[in-house]
Amino acid sequence: MREVVPPPGSERAKKFRSIIVRTMTTLIMLALFFLIMAGGTPFVVMLVLVCQALVYREVTALFELTAQSGGRPIEGKGAEKSEDRWSKTLNWYFFAVTNYFLYGESLIHYFKHVVFADAWLTPFATNHRFISFMLYMIGFVGFVSNLKRQYLRQQFGLFCWVHMTLFLIVVSSHFIVNNILEGLIWFWVPACLVICNDIFAYVWGMSFGRTPLIQLSPKKTVEGFVGAFFTTLVFAYILGTFSMRFNYMICPGHDLGVTAWDNVECEKNPVFIWRDLPIGEPLVTILSTWARRPVTSIPVAPFQFHSVVLACFASLVAPFGGFFASGFKRAFDIKDFGDSIPGHGGMTDRMDCQFLMGMFTYVYYSTLIRVNHVTPGSILQIIVSSLGPQEQLELYRELTSYLHGRGLLGSS
Amino acid sequence: MREVVPPPGSERAKKFRSIIVRTMTTLIMLALFFLIMAGGTPFVVMLVLVCQALVYREVTALFELTAQSGGRPIEGKGAEKSEDRWSKTLNWYFFAVTNYFLYGESLIHYFKHVVFADAWLTPFATNHRFISFMLYMIGFVGFVSNLKRQYLRQQFGLFCWVHMTLFLIVVSSHFIVNNILEGLIWFWVPACLVICNDIFAYVWGMSFGRTPLIQLSPKKTVEGFVGAFFTTLVFAYILGTFSMRFNYMICPGHDLGVTAWDNVECEKNPVFIWRDLPIGEPLVTILSTWARRPVTSIPVAPFQFHSVVLACFASLVAPFGGFFASGFKRAFDIKDFGDSIPGHGGMTDRMDCQFLMGMFTYVYYSTLIRVNHVTPGSILQIIVSSLGPQEQLELYRELTSYLHGRGLLGSS
């Protein structure tokens, strides 16, 4: 416990100053976030990549800390140095390979028309998994051949740590990037909900917090948790209803040059389409009186509902990502993961819940919302990626004669 | 180091006895393995599941060992007990969820016709990823809410350990099961190659071994490694050529009732089809003289080549799985992972290389060998059944311009 209790007066001043600093950086971060959001898909993807790299650095740096404090006796300063450099290289090698694999998968999936049209890229795309696996195996063999008897526990510990971090951070940010490519709204709304929940847990907790929520972090209170839950639900309804107005938000990010100031058109996912929900008696009277005209139905869009579901996850489950991080910090007796954001600590301290949220959004979206519709474009992708030139020509001739037969093509 | 040096005479006797015991169990295991192979796909899948569960038990049991030896002071015997029981439950819960997720994926992929025909199963199949994710989240929330200040490091260590084990063992045995379902040969040949390599590394090492291969396990020698490599290459060629004669081996395991005594028919993957390779001059004379008839070509099947590639991996890279396990055992000062197989140690000691091999086979097979039965005919069927006339014309135009762009169509 490094906390020192200051005299009461100064404690209050300190608390006040900490609120100011934290609020200022929050506002700056929010402004930056809006700007990046408006800049278009590539900038948002870049943001996620930078965040995950920072988090990865913070978390793996932590391992060296623990190895130094609790590790085995180390023979010779030189050996330690070279060991250190090697383990850093290995960390970043695995990081690079995992990213190569995951973002390759995304690129191949979302940009088939680009990837498979380029003769130079095609072999990388078709053998992507094999290449990634062999790259990983090189790292694995490198790790095993470099095992040193006197460092075994430390080396295996690091290996385990690196894989865990890759799993928790890199895999989930990959899902976040997929969400972005499915349409900015699938990134924007979940991210805002987590931020909203975070802010209001802090606000309600500061204002009314009495009952501690979990043993691990004394600053989290039941009042904050419950208050933030309801606030986030209301916020989700408003934010969802507002955000789905913009095509920029709901169209998939297949065109990378688009910014918030461009006009985008796309076929809307049905969850964004308004429909009239007929309402029953007491409501009819109440609403008709209030609107001063007969009201028998209200306009709703399924996305409003989905937005509220996301809010439930953001305020009931995602905070456990934060508790996980808190427990982790306490296990290693540190206060923050880093000091890159004044008043907030490290990047990890702010991102912990975002990862869980991103994963949930991806799973929720891909299972329950995504429409796999067959379009001319998707069929062309299959033709280009799965058929050889001769087969493509064969299909072309078959299609030509079929369309002729149905009278859809001129007789030329 | 628990090894005690016995007097020279008894050492020899002991070495001899150890060889006998090891050889006997090896033969028994091989016989059992053949029997299970002949019993059909479901038994082979069961074998893999049992092996992975045993390995998982051995590896997670190891964690308790380390926690007891190197852990923090524990307050109260009762707390320790309940903590222990809880961590065991959590281990097996994550194991169950991972298996549910992975085998669900396989079942849905390979048995679509069964899964989607059943009204009761369909919702589980369509929402499979969502259900699995929520089950995992329950475990995660359970883990976080149960974090206890005094056990933090131990709990996070276990969490990391469990995930690592799940990743290395459960995920790779899932790939092995996929191999089995693609056709028994994709399980049989790789597994035999690893066994062959294991046995001959031991035989050559015992007979001629002088130069130690790696610092970590003194029993492994360069002579064993090199000898086993060449033996495995030859063995792969023979085994591959022999195994691909049987339809039982090469047909996908979609019909679960089939055993080795049944007659199976299926469309063969092209890699199993023999073709004539024309040969050049010196070979023509040599082979013609030897066969006493004019020989200008030799019959080859691509699978012979693939089998040799698998052998290269089995003898050059897969052993690193074994070295990894050796290093691991040494890190925790244990001789074997368990004692379930007399003369061999635990299940893990025998399976270590199989996991890597199974993963490689899956990646190699799915990238380079699997035929996605996409034909011009099947695509035309999709076009006719799923697109409207306007969309068909749009596709026709896109295809025309694509083929023009690649120079496959004349300028007309």
Automatic annotation (TrEMBL), chains A, B:
<keyword id="KW-0548">Nucleotidyltransferase</keyword>
<keyword id="KW-1208">Phospholipid metabolism</keyword>
<keyword id="KW-0812">Transmembrane</keyword>
<dbReference type="Pfam" id="PF01148">
    <property type="entry name" value="CTP_transf_1"/>
</dbReference>
<keyword id="KW-0594">Phospholipid biosynthesis</keyword>
<feature type="transmembrane region" description="Helical">
    <location>
        <begin position="156"/>
        <end position="177"/>
    </location>
</feature>
<feature type="transmembrane region" description="Helical">
    <location>
        <begin position="183"/>
        <end position="204"/>
    </location>
</feature>
<keyword id="KW-1133">Transmembrane helix</keyword>
<feature type="transmembrane region" description="Helical">
    <location>
        <begin position="303"/>
        <end position="325"/>
    </location>
</feature>
<dbReference type="GO" id="GO:0016024">
    <property type="term" value="P:CDP-diacylglycerol biosynthetic process"/>
</dbReference>
<keyword id="KW-0472">Membrane</keyword>
<keyword id="KW-0443">Lipid metabolism</keyword>
<feature type="transmembrane region" description="Helical">
    <location>
        <begin position="225"/>
        <end position="246"/>
    </location>
</feature>
<dbReference type="GO" id="GO:0005789">
    <property type="term" value="C:endoplasmic reticulum membrane"/>
</dbReference>
<keyword id="KW-0808">Transferase</keyword>
<comment type="pathway">
    <text>Lipid metabolism.</text>
</comment>
<keyword id="KW-0444">Lipid biosynthesis</keyword>
<dbReference type="GO" id="GO:0004605">
    <property type="term" value="F:phosphatidate cytidylyltransferase activity"/>
</dbReference>
<dbReference type="InterPro" id="IPR016720">
    <property type="entry name" value="PC_Trfase_euk"/>
</dbReference>
<feature type="transmembrane region" description="Helical">
    <location>
        <begin position="90"/>
        <end position="110"/>
    </location>
</feature>
<dbReference type="InterPro" id="IPR000374">
    <property type="entry name" value="PC_trans"/>
</dbReference>
<protein>
    <recommendedName>
        <fullName>Phosphatidate cytidylyltransferase</fullName>
        <ecNumber>2.7.7.41</ecNumber>
    </recommendedName>
</protein>
<feature type="transmembrane region" description="Helical">
    <location>
        <begin position="130"/>
        <end position="147"/>
    </location>
</feature>
<comment type="pathway">
    <text>Phospholipid metabolism; CDP-diacylglycerol biosynthesis; CDP-diacylglycerol from sn-glycerol 3-phosphate: step 3/3.</text>
</comment>
<comment type="similarity">
    <text>Belongs to the CDS family.</text>
</comment>
